[in-house]
Design brief:
Distance between the termini: 61 Å
CATH superfamily of the largest domain: Glucose Permease (Domain IIA)
Number of domains: 3
Shape: globular
Helix content: 10-25%
CATH architecture of the largest domain: Distorted Sandwich
Length: about 375
């Protein structure tokens, strides 16, 4: 038997029948917000927060979504909601207790009605685009020429950045990541990241790149006619490789430096060869005495292992998702073309082959046709 006080307390709650529940599921997000607020105030129930505010771009490079999971929420519920890309399903568990519909209409309190509405399959609830996700990115600020690491704890899935497709995939730590970039030819401004039906504007800042003058043998400024066919064939080979990267991710985790030496020439430098010919330096030059072991920056496939006219000994590693690392002016190859390589594996030895003024390693990074600043890539995970 319940005490009179217990019955009185129970009577203060608003009871709902199953017919009323459909009204909740059909209501707008403002109604859900008011219901959640009422439950929080009257039932002292802090497990869920549902805010109707618009996304807020914070200084930390983070978009805070309308739906936010409290830190006290059971981790299993977080994992399951992430797997459903921000949607709660009928199988979602909150504090390890399945959400059920009580048989007795008298037992249908506001709390249970809200749980039912939130736990209904996505087809019957608000679509994911109504619930902006939490997305982080680095570096901050993003600059012209920078690689960009996007991360979210919400879900995996396809996204669009600069009209190019990228994929959020498991990062192995409970989050999902996508690697992209802002090429040197991109004008400073604000650009949209479109993910899960939502748009996040990201500012890309200008960046200063210096210039330098270099003297090289004339044959590398004006190649002899007899080598032009070779140069054209090499250009066609590289173009074909860069267009044939598999959509799967072959890399995993942080990219690491290919040599344990300092670099002597930076990315983006505008170079003037022999006082006339101009080009842009698309990589880092590492100080590497002849025969220094060069290591793979991440796992992938050795797509090109050949001697080239300009690059000298060249290795191109395809990391999947149209992400490549390039290693130039090598004196010796330690892997064969087509081989699978692992991060940190020795792949070659440094040299001075091709258009080079002395022994060193030219290390470059390419994403979907754009060369990116390598030293920034090496620090995205630190």
């Amino acid at each position: 038997m319940q005490s009179a006080d217990a019955v009185a307390r129970k009577g203060k709650r608003s009871r709902m029948t199953k017919d009323n529940v459909s009204l909740i599921m059909a209501s707008n997000k403002r109604t859900l917000q008011m219901l959640a607020t009422s439950i929080h105030a009257n039932d002292n129930w802090p497990q869920w927060r549902y805010a109707a505010a618009q996304p807020d771009l914070t200084r930390s490079g983070r978009i805070v979504g309308k739906r936010d999971v409290d830190r006290n929420l059971d981790p299993q519920a977080h994992i399951e909601s992430a797997a459903n890309c921000g949607r709660l399903t009928e199988n979602t568990i909150i504090n390890r207790t399945p959400v059920t519909i009580p048989d007795s209409p008298d037992a249908m309190t506001r709390r249970r009605a809200l749980l039912l509405a939130l736990a209904t399959p996505a087809s019957a609830t608000a679509a994911a685009p109504d619930r902006p996700l939490l997305v982080d990115w680095t570096p901050l600020p993003v600059f012209v020429g920078a690689p960009i690491l996007f991360k979210t704890t919400a879900c995996a899935g396809s996204a669009t950045w600069l009209d190019k497709n990228i994929e959020f995939r498991s990062a192995g730590d409970g989050s999902f990541s996508a690697l992209a970039g802002a090429g040197l030819d991109l004008a400073p401004g604000r650009y949209p990241l479109v993910f899960n039906g939502q748009t996040i504007e990201i500012a890309v800042k200008a960046h200063f790149y210096p210039s330098s003058t270099i003297k090289v043998p004339p044959k590398f400024v004006q190649p002899p006619k007899e080598v032009q066919a070779r140069i054209d064939a090499e250009v066609a080979l590289k173009r074909a490789v860069f267009k044939s990267s598999p959509p799967e991710r072959l890399w995993q985790g942080a990219f690491t430096a290919p040599a344990k030496t300092r670099y002597t020439s930076s990315f983006g430098v505008r170079r003037i060869y022999n006082g006339s010919t101009q080009s842009t330096h698309h990589g880092l030059d590492y100080s590497a005495p002849m025969g220094t072991e060069i290591k793979a920056a991440n796992s992938g496939r050795a797509a090109i292992v050949r001697d080239m006219y300009f690059e000298g000994g060249l290795i191109v590693i395809d990391h999947g998702e149209s992400i490549f690392t390039l290693y130039m002016h090598l004196s010796e190859f330690l892997v064969k073309e087509g081989a699978t390589v692992q991060r940190g594996q020795g792949i070659a030895k440094s040299g001075s082959s091709g258009r080079a003024t002395g022994p060193h390693l030219h290390f470059a990074v390419q994403w979907q046709g754009s060369y990116l600043e390598p030293s920034t890539l090496l620090h995205l995970w630190t």
